[in-house]
Amino acid sequence: MPTTLVTGATGFLAGHCVDQLLKDGHTVIGTVRNPSKAERLAEAFKSEVESGKLELETLKDIQNEDEFEAIFKKHPEIDYILHTASPLSFNVTDPEKDMLQPAIRGTTAVLKQAKAHAPNVKKVVITSSIAAMMNPDPSHVHNEHSWNPMTREQAAQKGNPVANYVGSKIFAEKAGLEFLNDEKPNFSITWINPAYILGPGITLDLGAINASNQLISSVLESKLGEEVKVQSGSFVDVRDCARAHVVALQPKFDRKRLMLCTAKVCTQDIEDICNKIPELKGKIAVGTPGEREKQLSKSIMDPSETKKLLDFEWIPLDKSVTDFAKQWLEIKQ
Ligand code: NAP
């Protein structure tokens, strides 16, 4: 069975990637930088850690090529890489240092060192984002071939953490493509471009809920009568997103971008779903039921190429939200 490296293994999405790889029989090496998060992850996969099916390796900074070199030299058996690690926080002081460089250099570091020291690697799956595909033209039909036209200068704009994050995903994706074209490594790349990733965590720390699930937690934390800030976009369940990363290891996905967007979502949808959960009904914000159409994003999304290629039964929004809410409630009680 193959050995697969997962970067940023303590992340929300990566936890599910580790879970699904282990269930598919892979031996998994996960890179971690935060000891207490690593401990929590090791506890969640206790028997796999004990049996050696899951090994955690410290990688303090994804930009550090020496750290990657050491990991690849220690594990020359690695067959596949899921590169999920990238900064996802809107607390940005220095756009280059906090967001753009770790995303871009982190991508080139893993690719460069894999080419140099990991002779068995056949595929690198890189987590990009639907943000790298979004076009401000309201008539644009977004699909697997769309590119966000943001410039490198716009991406580095101070005081605009959303642009910094979006830019980090665009230019990291482009750096990977450039590497593939210029360096012609023995492996190929597949990019996964998810919309908001929602759903339960393998581990969940209520003090550090990942950016996308805050769409749900903002409703869970609200009080009856309060107004929750409206957000809208598209979503994919975290388990489908992880499944796509694993399926994408197959050669038929070489060089493809998979656009993961199950359906549109807005705050009103989350309020409607959460208000059907008996423990929450009558205690949290209700929004304006029936007004979801007003909140929904007007962007035209066409992920039909990906849906045909993946042929998944996509997890619907009510399951993603309910499963997260139940996990949140269990910890809260
Ligand atoms: P997450 O929980 O914040 O995971 C990110 C992971 O990257 C964490 O493990 C983090 O380590 C690690 N990391 C960040 N910067 C690092 C650095 N400089 N050096 C080493 N490790 C670093 O976020 P997520 O939601 O799972 O996101 C995973 C991937 O999906 C990211 O590439 C993100 O851009 C992409 N994505 C996410 C969404 C979404 O809605 N969540 C949508 C589209 C794309 P720590 O655990 O120590 O913080």
From TrEMBL:
This is NAD-dependent epimerase/dehydratase domain-containing protein. It comes from Yarrowia lipolytica (Candida lipolytica). Signal peptide: none annotated. Keywords: Oxidoreductase. SUPFAM superfamilies: NAD(P)-binding Rossmann-fold domains. Residues 5-251 form the NAD-dependent epimerase/dehydratase domain. Belongs to the NAD(P)-dependent epimerase/dehydratase family. Dihydroflavonol-4-reductase subfamily. Pfam families: Epimerase. PANTHER family: NAD DEPENDENT EPIMERASE/DEHYDRATASE, STEROL-4-ALPHA-CARBOXYLATE 3-DEHYDROGENASE, DECARBOXYLATING. GO terms for molecular function: oxidoreductase activity, acting on the CH-OH group of donors, NAD or NADP as acceptor.
